[in-house]
Specification:
The complex is a heterodimer of chains A (94) and B (198). Chain A has 94 residues and is mainly α. Chain A contains three helices and no strands. The mean pLDDT of chain A is 89. Chain B has seven helices and no strands. Classes of the chains: A mainly alpha (94), B mainly alpha (198).
């Protein structure tokens, strides 16, 4: 059985995605020049997460993949977040 | 007789491997998070030793390379073999630029005696040692993944050229692309956390 004929992404879509990623990168850099102390890290991480979401959805083709792939990724990320939260529960209450 | 193919299964296998990589680097980021909280001043100071310009350049180069590897898939699926090969070649050039920049960065640090286990490093304050250990280990491990990815992409480029990867059979290319995007994703987080905390 051969694979299903799925949607072929146009070159230009990848061009736009790259542009978005570059803009987000420059925003990250600009934001870190403004010192918001603890908040700077949070903003940098949020922007990095947005970039990751874009890479996952468009470059890594999750948008056109079967939905179960997205479910798996979310599950893995949740497990990871759980590990971080639990670790910090220990560390912050020492 | 057609060999059984399961392209979606093959892709899923690659994703499962990517999950293990996320947890691998995730563990390192976790160490970074705790140590940064404990030694925030020293991390902040130590980060001045890193060149944010080269870091930014590397980020741009890697993002661009992710775009070109994705475009290569489009090309192969459309049967445009030459473009397919060309895009992978550009991706590999980007990888080369990234590696060259890393050579400049690491080379400089090593030349001033700043490397894990050096006399200078051992004499530094604890927070500094932690920052630089994390820097060398995480960028080193990332670099290793980049080199492995480049080797895989080179093989893929050859296979596109000789036709064993084509519009009817391109799962290897997709999986190689997924691995490359992972290398990019890791750097997307490494860059701000190591280079932009000044």
């Amino acid at each position: 059985m051969s694979h299903l004929e799925t949607h072929i992404t146009d070159y230009r879509v990848y061009g736009w995605v790259l542009l978005a990623l570059l803009i987000l990168t420059s925003i990250t850099i600009t934001v870190t020049w403004i010192d918001l102390s603890a908040l700077t890290v949070l903003v940098a991480l949020i922007i990095a997460s947005v970039k990751s979401f874009i890479v996952l959805r468009y470059f890594m083709h999750l948008k056109f993949e079967s939905g179960i792939f997205t479910v798996f990724i979310i599950m893995v990320l949740l497990i990871y977040v759980l590990v971080i939260v639990l670790t910090f529960f220990d560390y912050l209450l020492r | 007789m057609e060999l059984h193919r399961d392209d979606i299964g093959a892709r899923l296998g690659m994703w499962i491997f990517i999950f293990t990589e996320i947890l691998l680097f995730g563990g390192l980021f976790l160490v970074y998070a705790v140590m940064r909280d404990r030694y925030s001043d020293e991390f902040h100071q130590a980060a001045h030793q890193l060149n944010a310009f080269i870091g930014t350049l590397n980020t741009v180069v890697l993002l661009f390379s992710s775009a070109t590897v994705a475009m290569s898939i489009t090309a192969v699926r459309k049967g445009e073999k030459r473009k397919g090969v060309l895009f992978i070649f550009i991706t590999l050039v980007c990888a080369g630029i990234f590696l060259f920049n890393k050579y400049l960065e690491w080379g400089h640090k090593i030349s001033i005696g700043l490397y894990p286990g050096s006399e200078m490093m051992i004499g530094l304050k604890h927070g500094y040692i932690l920052f630089f250990s994390l820097y060398f280990f995480m960028t080193g491990l990332h670099m290793l993944h980049l080199v492995v990815g480049s080797i895989i992409l080179t093989i893929i480029m050859v296979k596109i050229q000789i036709g064993s990867i084509n519009s009817g059979k391109y799962t290897l290319l997709e999986n190689g692309g997924l691995y490359w995007h992972l290398v990019d994703l890791i750097w997307i987080f490494l860059f701000p956390l190591l280079y932009l905390i000044t």
